[in-house]
Amino acid sequence: MTVNTIADARYAETEAFSDGGYVVTWHSSGINGTGSGIATQRFDSEGNKVGGETVISSAASNDQDYASITVLDDDSYVVVWVNENPYNDTSDIAGQRFSKDGLPLGDQFTVNAVTGDTDDSQYLEYPDITSLPDGGFAVVWEFNDSSSDQTRIHAQRFSSEAQKVGDELIVSQLDSYTLNTRPHISASDDGKMIVTWGDDVNGSTDVLIKTYSLPTTLTFSSVAGDDFSIDSNELTDGKIAIEGKVVGDFSTTSSVTFWIGDKQVGTGEVDAAGNVTASVALSGLIGHGSLTAKLDVADAAGNTGALSTSIDYSVDSGSFLTLDPLTDNNIIDIEESEGTVDITGQYSIASVGDVIEVSVNGKTLTHTMTQEDVDAGGHFSITVDGADLAATDNVSVSIRHNGQEVVHHTHNYTVDLNDPSDVQASEADVVNTHLESAQEFPTSAYFSDGSYVVAWQSYDQDGDDYGIFAQHFDAEGNKIGSEYQLNSTTEESQFSVSITVFDDDTFMASWSNYPDSSGSPNEILGQKFNKSGEAISEEIDFEVSTDSNYQSSITELSDGGYVMTWHSYESSTPVVKSQRFDADGNKEGSEITVNTTEGARYAETEAFSDGGYVVSWHSSGFNGTGSGIATQRFDSEGNKVGGETVISSAVSNDQEYASITVLDDDSYVVVWVNENPYNDTSDIAGQRFSKDGSPLGDQFAVNAVTGDTDDSQSLDYPNITSLPDGGFAVVWEFNDSASDQTRIHAQRFSSETQKVGDEIIVTELDSYNANTRPHISASDDGKMIVTWGDDVNGSTDVLIKTFTLPVTVTSLTKIQDGTENGEESSDWPGWEINMVRESDIAIPLWLRFDDTTNGENGATYGEDYTGNIHLEFTLSNGRVIKETVSVSSDNLTVKINLPANVETIKAFAELKDDALIENTESIVLHSSMSGEDNTWKASEAAAIKDNEGPAVVQTITPDDTEITEGDDVDLSWTVTLNNASSTDTTLRLDINNVGNNGDFTADTDGVFVLLDREGNELTTVNMADASTASLTLSLNPDMPAFSLKQHLPMIQSSKAPRTSPSRQKSRIQVDGKPPQISR
């Protein structure tokens, strides 16, 4: 290729960079207008030009020519050339150093000391340059004196910074030489350089050479890197690396020593090539900025000397200071703001006496490092008030060494003093990118990962009237990609879009379509998309049988199919229609008319968990003088369940614009606009129903702020969604026609239709005059979004606002049953607690335990506890934190502090053998975020199995009746066991008399009756069935106490007559154990 751009280029030289690129220099005529000039061109490692041709000579006239170039160790390069100066009639050698990217480093410099006087026919010509092993360079050139017919060779050595080193050298030995021509210079890595040239020797031209040994030099290229700055990442076992080079004569047995003042801090080795390597402890360098390197040298002749060079360096002290996050999530929350927080960190190069200063909110606290602190690695901890941290969002930490500040670091953090029980709102954002004309009537739906899609109708964006567009957002509310068009058919208008997300994260949109200029939407069209918004079906014509079709909506059913509802007209009368489809989109059955009462419109559908569904709408004529609200339930086959149900209680004016949602327990809530003619008000009313359609509680008012119809105020278009905590939320328009203002309001409810928190003003300014048709959706992770149409800068756009729900317990489920006296978590009853979302701050949680036996059989439930409740917190990063808390037998409620970002909580109750209820008991865990009675959420009961240890007789209590022969009496004993077995237990009875002076079996009728502790007869055993005076009874499981009863008839003993009363004695053992108690 042609290197030059400017014509007449000659005398080129090339030098290579370390990466395979290279640079070329030459001179070209005409560059400077009246003479030659010097240019360069750089190339990459592929041989491609880098940038353009660069003119580097600064003179504007006469000749600059005969350029020579060399690349130095650092990939900078130096160009030298002949420079003829017309202003003072001189001839010199000029030079310029450049960085690898072609930028000048310093100013242009003069190589020679002896200048040529052109008036005396003196000229400097043919310079040649080479790099030197010490990082510098050397230049040789001709000095021509035509008047004396003499030519000399001169040379000059330079440092890497283009500073002259030593004096100018006269290379040729005699000035009388007449032909010292075209010198060349080369250098070796061991500090030698040779100059060659042509010369007149005895009448002929010969090549001469001269060798120079450079002075022995000691230079350094790196102290912990080529920036000579030491930071914490450059330490190895507390030491830093130093690298350098010895050039010239030296002994390979030499070593380099490093000193600070008169203290040696390290030693380095010198290899045969002169490379110096050393590893020096950082501790010796702290507090200084320069060290001295010393080298003893000797040449081949035995001459000795000493070299000494100074090395400047810096220590990046700040890199050795690390601060820990103030809290686990680096957020100061309410609880932390009310207490104290430890500022902790490490200054790993600390010295005794260094002072750590912590400054926050105008206050400064200090800690002086002790020997113990230094030995421990420089760790420190300073306690500050949480209130000071909460008053700002940063804390500064400084290090003072010998009274001077050597480090100053500012640590930023977040302050979040929002109560986790409050709803938190984002700013309102514009959804649509296309801002012209009108974007209206948005709808939205969440995907399983918390991302969501918003769809709306946009005027004239698809080229013909209204079209349907959508935008996707990630779970944090950031737009994913660009907005895109859903409708393929664009003729006339496509409007009134509805979307639903299926369990597989696909979604379907449906809308009304004007196919021509007929004046009414004859078609319902739609399309199915994947989560990324890519169409996975063709545009669908649902082929409904009716004309004038409005407000279609699609609801997924539990079998993967769906039902579509819409309102239409038959004989000019509004009707609500529905059609079921299977999972493949095929129609199942025929269209049906949902309503019975005429004038039905504005239908919504929600599905039950079993595949059934319920439809709500409003119809005219229900209440005599206005519209009313009705519902119709369907089973999973699409059959009507019962009849149409009128749910609005007002008997006049309009109740309209119903919206419906199904809650977690398959109950459902309907809300609607309620106009009250008696007090001229407009409200949003609601009613909750069980799945079978029975009202649950009374009709309730959704809104707190009522519309005064006398002042042209009205509440319109409510929309409802279920929430992951089991409750629901409602949004609606508040219209004030007199002031031409519209606001969007919202209210959250519990599952029992109790208001949670205050009414929310969604729109930020009352001056908005087009806050229209709000829609609300909620995610499983505790977010909800409200979308609406709004007037922004003169056009209607779609706005969105995100609300983060408070952290509440959503479910509490049993993991396992347990046993008494268990030794580890697998033995204990356990539960898992889930919340509506993770909290980014530490929050409290209350746990309470109940006994479902409610003290039956005399139990005191607290006796079951060892006092230990074992907790496992799983954080969002997968980390598991374990903690044990204590409860007492008289207070089985405990408050725990949840760490931030907890996803799940497991609780295990460690139980002992209570010895009170000897059967399988049960235990219930309740949980609450507030500990208030109306906020507890309870799980199913966990069983407590009885300890499997052996049953042992604890007491035998006789009636202690004296017996006289001939009496007819009943005797009884009460027996208690200290552990009821969960299986049948064998009980052995040995019977004899106290005096052993008679055959006891002859005295008794041999019949024993076993009674429970309430006196109910359990079984009868006859001693006559035993061969000896003992018998074995089989006790039922879980029997902690029982009674024995024996009847003695008037029978004489077979032995000699007794003259004193006798006592009967019983010896009892259980499961063959030795007799334990006798009475």
UniProtKB/TrEMBL annotation:
Ranges where the record places region Disordered: 1051-1079
Comp. bias regions, Polar residues: 1051-1063
Name used for this protein in its record: Uncharacterized protein
Source organism superkingdom: Bacteria
InterPro entries to which the protein is assigned, alphabetical: Ig-like_fold
